[in-house]
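[[Per-residue structure]]
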Amino acid sequence: STLYVPFYYINQFNDMDFKNRERRLDQTVVHELSHKLWYSLGGNESSERNWRLWNEGFAGYCAEVYFADLYPEDFEAEQTRGFGVHAKGKQKVEELVESHGKQILL
């Protein structure tokens, strides 16, 4: 299988010195690897309406919280903002973790 990391997105602000681009790359890779982990845990793509909500929520939570110790000490993860599927999904995962603890993820 293939891991897709959208490098074009990372440089959307024309960061010519690549400092911010490099810092965001870590989080993007962890996010995309979390999608792969989701599929490995049985979260296959389906026509179910909430599939994308849980898929993106799991990846967002993992990239921002669960695997945060993978980042350099001075790294500040970009938080999911807004009201879209990423933010709503991450909120659902956070609610599960709050109710059942981090062990519910794996």
The chain is about 55% helix and 0% strand. The CA atoms of residues 56 and 86 lie 5 Å apart.
